[in-house]
Structure formats: C-alpha cells, structure tokens
Amino acid sequence: MQVQDLAGASLDFWVAMAEDLGAPRVDAAGCTVIHKPGGMPVPYAPSSSWADGGPLVERLPFGAFERDGGHGAWRAVLHRAVPAAGERCTFNQSGPTLLVAAMRTLVASTFGDDVPDLDMSKPR
C-alpha cells in the first residue's frame, strides 16, 4: 500500500508502528494502542487529533506549509538521519490537512513510500 494513500485509522495504525507503540490495531471504532505494559487499549488518532498528533509534530523537525498561496494540499517535509544511507534524508508527503501530511511523512520516513498490507485487526 502506498503511504500517500493511507488515511484515517490505517494511517494512525502505521504511525503507531513507526512510534513503536504497544499493540496497535484497527477495528470499526478506529485505531487503538496500549501505552503502558498491562494497560488497556486506548483510542489513537494522530492523523486527526492534535492531542495525539501534536506532540509528534512538536518533537520531530517537520517543516509544513500549504501550497498555492493558502489553497490546496498541505505538504510536510521531514529531515531525518537514515543510518542505512549514512546521511540525513529528506522525506515529504502531502495530505488534506497538516496532520495527515505530517503523519504520512513520518510513516514514509520510517518504512519508505510503501507499507505492507497487514491484517490491522490483530494487535502487533
């Protein structure tokens, strides 16, 4: 699956995987994760909730902007060290909102432009 096509709970699942959060899974209600060992699953929606996505945007060195003079899709740019490449690389993705663009960019910077089709209903 192309990262540029991820949205909603599927995108949230892959953000949880990128952040190495506990037991991410997706069901009809959305994505859930377990923050503490032995804890209960809690909703996780970084692509639509600033409570979940905002801390990631603040922690990582994102540059985000809207194109076409304030119209059109948001594009997020992230510069990260990539040990396998031996250098810092630039990743970018777009989306209808700043959070979607930023979360797609985070996923792409961790897994590449494609992610495998997984059964997201089973905790990882």
Task: Give the structure's gist in a few sentences.
The chain has about 120 residues and is an alpha+beta fold.
Task: Reconstruct the topology from this structure.
Blueprint: H1 8-18, E1 22-27, E2 30-34, E3 42-43, H2 50-59, E4 62-66, E5 74-82, E6 87-95, H3 98-111
Antiparallel strand pairs: 1-2, 2-3, 4-5, 5-6
Helix pairs in contact: 1-3
How would you characterize the overall build of this protein?
- The chain is built from three helices and six strands.
- The chain is an alpha+beta fold and 124 residues long.
- The chain has one domain: 2-Layer Sandwich (Bacillus phage protein).
- The strands form two sheets. A three-stranded antiparallel sheet has the order 1-2-3, covered by helices on one side. Strands 4-5-6 form a three-stranded antiparallel sheet.
CATH class: Alpha Beta
The overall pLDDT average reads 92
What is the number of beta strands?
6
Helix content: 25-40%
Radius of gyration from CA coordinates: 14 Å
Percent of residues in beta strands: 25-35%
Work out the helix count: 3
Brief descriptors of the model:
alpha+beta, 3-stranded antiparallel β-sheet, Phage_P22_NinX, 3 helices, 124 residues, 28% helix, 2-oxoglutarate dehydrogenase, single chain
